[in-house]
Amino acid sequence: MLFKNVQVHGPAGSLVTDVRVKDGQVADTGTGTGPDTQVIDGSGLGLVAVVPATRKDQGHMVGRVEPGIPADLLLVPRGSMPRLGTPWWRVIVGRTDLRALLTRGQVVIRDGEPLDRPANPDGARVGVWIDQNDWLHQELLPQGWYDETRGGRRHAYTGRYWLDGNRIDYLDDSGFYAFGEFIGDQLFHAEFVMRQQARP
């Protein structure tokens, strides 16, 4: 896969370049040559990486696109690029702004549309997750749907979700993508830190 003319964060500031993805990793940046199975025009778009944070207990954050890293990448309009160092679980993108999301080099969202992938392959993490103030109750249902109660208001946010290791992608029915991350026994999402409600 080759991203052509895409903006990335470089060591000396942002630059426009080509980015090649091969075997689940960022292969190189610079002028792309050779045959590629898929070319994505990145004109006017920005590409960021989802990379491990400096400390393990912080999960993942927005990082630079560099050769040799896993191709966990987010493609959005340049004006919507999240800042370097932003925790991944704080990133929110409008559905029409999310041009591509890659996990280990595989496109899982393209032009705002989720591609076919299992939502919750082993049924992990199903249940109700509650924040520290008992204000947010987020129920993850086994079929890949979620339903949030906020401040006692039922169905405040509803939509679909997909688990990918410790990361979770949400597509809200109101038209945006948000992300979360399981770190230890906690679920981090937006400004919330949640724990799973004990099952009866």
Automatic annotation (TrEMBL):
Organism whose genome encodes this protein: Actinoplanes cyaneus
GO molecular-function terms, A-Z: hydrolase activity, acting on carbon-nitrogen (but not peptide) bonds
Name listed for the protein in its UniProt record: Protein Atu4866
UniProt cross-references to InterPro entries, sorted A to Z: Atu4866-like_sf (IPR038646), Metal-dep_hydrolase_composite (IPR011059), Uncharacterised_Atu4866 (IPR020955)
Pfam families in UniProt: Atu4866 (PF11512)
